[in-house]
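Give me structure tokens for this 295-residue protein.
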Amino acid sequence: ALMHAKMQEKLLSRLVPLFVALISNSEVLLHMEKGSMQEVFIMNYVVESYENYQEENRLTTNNARKIEFITTTRVLDEVIGAKSNILDCAAGTGVYAFWLADKGHDVTATDITPRHIDIINQTLTTKEYSMNTAVLDATDMSCFSDDTFDVVLNMGPFYHLITEEQREKCLKECLRVLKKGGLLITAYIPRYYVFQYVATSDVKYLDGHLAKQLIETGVLKHDDEKCFWTDTYYSSKEEMESIYGEHGLEIIDHFAQDGLAPLLSHKVDNWEESQFKIWCDYHYSICREQSVLGA
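Here you go.
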């Protein structure tokens, strides 16, 4: 699911120097040592997971996965103003960053995984525009000035931060670099959905203890016996809206990015183009329905 909110005028702003650079992996580790060693190790496991995963194929290889991108870009088109200054602070390999830049926005793309930024920089050699890029931990974006961006995309860090302290740091950093009146766009993975997905994908995860753990804590750790991904935090519609409210944010939209499609990929991927379009239009028509958000 994804939600975005408008930053209220009452939020304070400060001004610090702007710095954008491509940082090596070793420097990222030094950068993260400002926090606890536990945080460093946690982020190492997340980075390792993505270094060994082809993120560049996630939203493009099959119809069931494409629905997230189709739905999200349709919404972004509706809410982002022309020629905006945008930070994508978990850009992955740049699928959203390049879509936005192709539309004329000024985009800065950062990600904690060096491989992702390498791919973005390689893709940039085929483009006629430039893009600031950096390997960066979204819980500490002190390289950016306060009040810098019209839009901040936080479509990744939140669900890899397994402590409340980490999530709070990340959110505060996003709000700090966001201009007053700007848009914060946040993705989260619903905790009441994830077990259905993994259990139907692989029977070894059809485990009562795993289901109870996900429902009660929302936390999955890389060293859990039944870990199916890496360090992750699964949230809920109510929790996300509460967090936004506590930070004085006005929620202007809240929608499901892909709905049931990942669970039905064996059917969705076999549809003809016209059939797939019908499904995409249907999903968009109900993606804000309260009964399906977080389900």
